[in-house]
Design a protein that fits this description.
single chain, 156 residues, mainly alpha, Ferritin, 7 helices, 0% strand
């Protein structure tokens, strides 16, 4: 398979742009995060943008692999639709959490995001296994973020 640089660049730029826009709208979350009563396993605030950037790049590569695969177009369309829906859920989570302080709503939202990522990873895997595997770090990170969200919401 030959690499299509423009398609790869667009595939990677899309989640980076969506994540960046969510960070801008939510004020980055660093100040709000610092003021929260966080659990013991809570990482430092500087780690979040580093991890999210890496995850967005992996997501973009995974979507690219699916988009350029030789799979049935209906199968690709379904997988990429789920990918788009989970990106939408990803975009709104920090806004619900940081801007509105709706910790319990954000917790339910992130659980739905986790389920959408899982389905997307399975659909991607069926098309090209590498694409499914590339979403696993994202799935694990969102599971950890769900724990953090629950810990913050619990006292409220």
């Amino acid at each position: 398979m030959s690499i299509k640089p423009k398609a790869l660049a667009v595939s990677v730029a899309m989640p980076l742009a969506i994540g960046g826009l969510a960070a801008l709208i939510s004020g980055g979350g660093a100040e709000a995060y610092g003021a929260l009563n966080r659990p013991a396993l809570s990482p430092p605030a500087w780690l979040f943008p580093v991890v999210w950037t890496a995850l967005y790049i992996l997501m973009g590569i995974a979507a690219y692999l699916v988009a350029v695969s030789d799979a049935d177009s209906a199968q690709k369309r379904t997988a990429l639709l789920f990918y788009g829906v989970q990106l939408f859920f990803n975009f709104l989570w920090p806004i619900a959490f940081f801007n509105f302080g709706a910790y319990w709503f954000a917790f339910v939202w992130i659980l739905l995001l986790f389920a959408l990522i899982f389905v997307t990873a399975v659909l991607f895997y069926r098309i090209t296994p590498a694409a499914g595997w590339l979403l696993l770090p994202y799935l694990f990170w969102v599971a950890f973020a769900s724990y953090l969200n629950f810990a913050v919401a619990s006292p409220h």
